[in-house]
Every structure is written in C-alpha cells, then in structure tokens.
Write a structure and sequence with these properties.
Mean pLDDT: 89
Number of strands: 10
Strand order of the largest sheet: 3-4-2-5-1-8-9-10
CATH superfamily: P-loop containing nucleotide triphosphate hydrolases
Radius of gyration: 21 Å
Shape: globular
CATH class: Alpha Beta
Structural class: alpha/beta
Number of helices: 10
Number of domains: 1
C-alpha cells in the first residue's frame, strides 16, 4: 500500500488523526510515532502498557550496525494495537532530547516502512508532529525530514478555523518547495481537514474554501470528537459508543481514499504522461479555438 506522513503547522490533531486512520484501515496497518518532540500514545492510548525500553529510540543503535539489524530491531519494537496484531504501533520518543540521535535513522526507517507498505501490503501512517523550519528548510533534528521527503503522500492536518489556516499558510509554500527540491514532488502534498463547530455555533470554513485558500487539495476530512481524541492522547476509559463513533467511521473512508490517491500517484510516477513537443503544443493551441467554435 502506501507510506503516508501526517504533520501540521500547529498542534491540531495529528496524533489522534493518525491513530484513527490506523485503527480504521480496512487493511493491516502500522502507525510510526515519529514526532521528534516526543510521543503521547505510550502514556495515553496504551496507558503505560509499554516501557521506555520499547520504541523508536532503540532503532538508532541498530541502524549503525546495518540494514539487517535495523529491520530486526524494527520488528521487535512494534506493539499490537488489536488482539490479532493487524494494527501495530512503533511508539515514539519518551524524551525530546533523544531526537538528536535519530539523524541517520530516519532514512533507514523510511526504507523499512516502504518495504512494509509495498511488499507486505500495509497502510503505514507516520505521525511527524509539528513541522519545524530553519532558513526555509525542514529542520533536520526537529522534523523527520527524510520520512517526509520519501513519503508516498504528505498530509497536512488543518482545522477549519481561521487560526489554523493562518498558521498553515506560513509553512505550506516552504513545504511545497522542499518536496520539489528534495522529496517526492509537491504533487504529493494534500490536506486532511478536521471539521469542528466554531465557538459561535457555525461550521467554520468548508473543505472547498480551505483548498482554495491554501491552493492544496483536500484529500480527507474527519469530524472533531473531543472525547475520543482525549482518549487517544490521554488514556482513561473509552467513551460510550467508541467503537461506532463518527471519527472511526469517517476515518475508514479517509483511509480508503488516501490509499487510492497514493496508488494513483505511484502509477503516474511509473508511467508519466508523454511530453508534448513545441510544434505539437502550438498545433493544440491553434485547434482549441476551432473546437470551441465547432461546439458553438
């Protein structure tokens, strides 16, 4: 399937969205919690079931040994999110200071994730957290830049509110340029909108308005569900009706659509559209008015 990175310009639901997609995916799925600022699912959703001895940080030492050691460490540090083990978690950092040790690890981890997606048919979601830039480029310590560069899709999570749109406007051009220069191309960039009612009772911006404002396609939308989002990131007792909640129901549709978009994009990259030579382009331009006149 695909490796899909979720990130944001501000803290606006990346982790809860990524977990919802992972739990709702109709295929085997994995969530890699790769926010350099630290993960929340270990203490939240998993309620302390796993210790700091399991998770992302331990891949750094294995990567220095070699690719085989890296693959083995990756497999041994996954944690099941359901009883059959169809949904797995690579738990994130317990201390943001650990991020400095992962500089070389991101690229190797990306290779492993792509093998899992393409060879084993998993939906892979990467929680990249809040984007950090320095001198117009992704910060190499405070963002998992290599994962973003090599992703099949890069999805910015944005709420349908003016503050969220305003913050996203400031990073989206820099991210688009980064993907064109160092990554898989800016065509891999899309939006996931978290739709919530405003404090005044309105529904906020529509997905069409957001796509127009940010000049980026909206690939998916999820409803805001505070009780489920809090359960994901803070733990506690599952909300009543959690298994049938709108967030998971919409997340299943979103997961299916994201997979289709990623697959279509992979096909386009393998079989690009034929180039139109200068003479043919001129011919097409001359023919266009004639076609319009014929239809008239």
């Amino acid at each position: 399937m695909a490796v899909i990175v979720l990130a944001s310009a501000a803290s606006c639901g990346v982790t809860s969205s990524a977990l919802a997609l992972t739990l709702a995916s109709p295929r085997p799925s994995l969530l890699a919690e790769c926010d350099p600022k630290g993960g929340t699912l270990r203490a939240g959703f998993l309620q302390g079931q796993i210790t700091a001895g399991v998770g992302l940080y331990h891949l750094a030492a294995a990567e220095r040994v070699g690719s085989e050691a890296m693959a083995g460490a990756f497999a041994s540090h996954l944690w099941p999110l359901d009883e059959p083990g169809h949904r797995m978690l690579l738990a994130g950092l317990t201390d943001p200071a650990q991020a400095a040790a992962l500089g070389r690890t991101w690229s190797a981890l990306s290779d492993v994730l792509h093998v899992l997606a393409q060879e084993a048919g998993h939906d892979v979601y990467v929680d990249a957290g809040r984007l950090s830039f320095t001198s117009g480029l992704l910060h190499q310590t405070f963002t998992p830049a290599a994962l973003i560069h090599q992703a099949d899709l890069v999805v910015l999570v944005v709420r349908n509110t003016e503050p969220s749109l305003s913050l996203t406007r400031h990073v989206i051009d820099a991210l688009r340029a980064e993907l064109d220069e160092h990554g898989c191309g800016s065509a891999a960039l899309g939006l996931l909108v978290i739709e919530r009612e405003t404090s005044r009772g309105g529904r906020g911006y529509t997905t069409h308005q957001i796509a127009d404002a940010l000049k980026t396609p909206v690939l998916a939308a999820l409803p805001w569900d505070a009780s489920v989002a809090d359960y994901f990131t803070e733990g506690g007792t599952p909300p009543r009706g959690y298994g049938r909640c709108d967030l998971l129901r919409y997340a299943r549709t979103a997961a299916e659509h994201l997979a289709v978009v990623a697959q279509r994009r992979r096909v386009q990259q393998q079989f690009p559209a034929p180039a139109v030579h200068g003479q043919l382009a001129g011919l097409l331009q001359r023919l266009s008015p004639q076609r319009g006149a014929a239809r008239g």
